[in-house]
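Our consortium's second objective concerns turning raw sequence data into structural hypotheses that experimental partners can test. To show how far this objective has progressed, the report includes one record in full. It was chosen at random from the queue rather than selected for favorable results. The single chain below, 205 residues long, was entered without modification.
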Amino acid sequence: MPMYFDRHHGRFSTCRSDSTALKSVLRHYVLTPEELIRAQRSVAFGCIKYADLSHNRINDYVFSFDKMLDDRGNTAAYLLYALTRIRSIARLANIDEATLRKAAETTELVLDHEKEWKLGKCILRFPEILQKILVDLLLHTLCDFLYELATTFTEFYDSCYCVEKDRQTGEVVKVNMWRMLLCEATAAIMEKGFEILGLNPVHRM
């Protein structure tokens, strides 16, 4: 029988509580027909548009459906999924926007891990990127930045827990709020970048 693993907290056992937690995860990630249609449209149009904008507009490039639809690398499919994944962190921890806004006013950022620093420095470059594309109108610079931000976030999330859950009940027992704020800042920048590029994010993929 295969084992199922929670990436930060070890394996799910076959006991009732973990089975319930797994069912909850499956319910969360199975799309409704309406969500599936929205996701299909967003990904389909986004992939074509992003494939064009991610190249320097003054240079030729090879048009490839296989490449633009790839969910790995600097593609819309990868970035849309990355944003969906980031947004799901707060949702699964039952943290709403009001809580995050309040935390932003009261929580001290303690960046004591190298991946936190790396992500924080990447986030701070966003105004510089916007200023650059306002001057030269080359949107591939923004695409490259969003891809760098997404991959930097992945490194951060793989190394730094944001939400800790009880292994038996699946209930949230600890939330690292300053890391949640890094998640929120990353998601907000990606959403603004998508808006500039004309991409429509989806809530679930």
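The partners drew two points from this record. DSSP finds nine helices and four strands in the chain. The two ends are 27 Å apart (CA to CA). Both points have been shared with the crystallography group to help prioritize constructs.
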